[in-house]
Amino acid sequence: MDEKDEQVYTTKVHLVVLGIIDHDHVGAEEVRAVLESAHYPNWCISPDVKFVKTVDIGTWEDGNPLNDGRTEKAEWEKLFPLLKELE
Question: What are the tens digits of pLDDT across the range 34-51?
Fold first, then answer.
């Protein structure tokens, strides 16, 4: 195989924004630890949580806007205005 036939693979860096509803009071630091420990075989990914922000939304009810696919996006943006800037 000559040089022009060699395929070059580059490493990508992804910014992934997750929203996690914590019904069981696991806590932000435990969620961070779980995510950062997910390395997969051969450490092919290496997650590093860069930022965590917590908002208390009170007592959960099934009618919560986060529990409705039609209203959840707007509610996430209301709770975390930074999300609008990331679109």
Answer: 999 988 888 888 899 999
